[in-house]
Amino acid sequence: MTRTAIVTGGSRGIGAAIAKALQAQGCQVAATYAGNDEKAAAFTKETGIKTYKWDVADYEACKAGVAQVEADLGAVDILVNNAGITRDAPFHKMTPQQWHECIDTNLNGVFNMTHNVWGGMRERKFGRIVTISSINGQKGQFAQANYAATKAGDIGFTKALAQEGARAGITVNVVAPGYINTEMMSTIPEKVMNEVILPQIPVGRLGEADEIARAVAFLAADDAGFITGSTISANGGQYMT
Ligand SMILES: NC(=O)c1ccc[n+]([C@@H]2O[C@H](COP(=O)([O-])OP(=O)(O)OC[C@H]3O[C@@H](n4cnc5c(N)ncnc54)[C@H](OP(=O)(O)O)[C@@H]3O)[C@@H](O)[C@H]2O)c1
């Protein structure tokens, strides 16, 4: 059976690798993005995966976006909540705007998207929700009180919702990446990367987006129905829970 998947933030970085992995697994995939039309167009050209622009922080936009994907591709079976941002600052310098932007995209975005596919999944008695958290939601990180709060929130959200979805054939899981080689990493100064981050990773390198996509594709598969409420850490051994 062909499954339909939405990957938020699926036009580049980890999300693009996830979208491609689900396509390779036989799914019809819709990849969403926020504003980078150029990257999205290049991604569609490369992969044939349709891209859709809306802000996951906007509930009504998510509702309309999901309806559009369902009109184009059919009912959504798989949702990957991948869209995320950082707004780093030590807490004493963190502005309310930095706090709220992070919460609105990373945490409210997960609610907005999941809430808009949940009813259909319950009716059809099948669903796969995978949310991309972070090692920094598991262990905390200096200058990321906002980001860590959202990424820890993903895990609590998942454990609660997994209990609600269990009898309806819906699994709800988290993948928590460590440091992955994407544009998000380009905001980290080279000195911090070489002297602080890399020495903390036992495998001695950043992860690749494909290595996260592999874990997501595993959880999204039809035969992963007994795995729910779990967090798969993919962090090169940096933090073992
Ligand atoms: N990279 C890492 O090392 C790492 C580690 C742990 C966890 N993560 C998590 O993994 C996920 C993907 O990270 P990444 O490094 O691949 O990020 P990225 O390269 O910065 O890509 C982010 C994607 O999310 C989209 N996006 C951002 N805000 C959005 C919004 N409000 N509405 C809709 N789409 C939005 C972007 O769209 P545009 O292209 O239009 O901007 C883009 O497609 C995030 O949740 C991140 O927190 C990343």
From TrEMBL:
Domain annotation Ketoreductase: ranges: 3-183
Database matches in PROSITE patterns: ADH_SHORT (PS00061)
Keyword terms: Oxidoreductase
One example GO MF annotation: acetoacetyl-CoA reductase activity
Gene Ontology BP terms: monocarboxylic acid metabolic process; poly-hydroxybutyrate biosynthetic process
Single GO cellular component term: cytoplasm
CDD domains per the UniProt record, alphabetical: BKR_SDR_c
InterPro entries for this protein: Acetoacetyl-CoA_reductase (IPR011283), KR_dom (IPR057326), NAD(P)-bd_dom_sf (IPR036291), Sc_DH/Rdtase_CS (IPR020904), SDR (IPR050259), SDR_fam (IPR002347)
Pfam families noted in UniProt: adh_short_C2
NCBIfam families in UniProt: AcAcCoA_reduct, PRK12824.1, PRK12826.1-2
Family affiliation: Belongs to the short-chain dehydrogenases/reductases (SDR) family.
Name the record gives this protein: 3-oxoacyl-[acyl-carrier-protein] reductase /acetoacetyl-CoA reductase
Organism (species): Jannaschia faecimaris
Species classification: Bacteria, Pseudomonadati, Pseudomonadota, Alphaproteobacteria, Rhodobacterales
